[in-house]
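Protocol step 4 of 6: structure prediction from sequence.
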Amino acid sequence: MSLFREIHKRSRVVIPQVLGASLVAYFAYHTIEGERGIWAWIHLKQNLAVKQVEMHTTLDERLGLESRVALLRPDNLDPDLLEERARDVLNYGRENDYVIIQKR
């Protein structure tokens, strides 16, 4: 009978500590592994960096295309660019021309 009293007396001290430690472990785990935890934040930052690089690349391509389109407007027509586009679209070349094919 004294064994049960001893267990009962010590359980009043141990149970709150075990519950507290369990609560701390629960929140620590979800701070790291949770849906909005540290690992999710790291992956989000990596995805953001990749998308920013992609955005800057696309923006540079867009600015390049806009500058080429501006040269083909009727009020500011560049004859060299017009001839280049006509040769490209019509697949036309002169007799003494050297053709260099580049991948874009």
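Step 5 (inspection) to follow. The mean pLDDT is 88.
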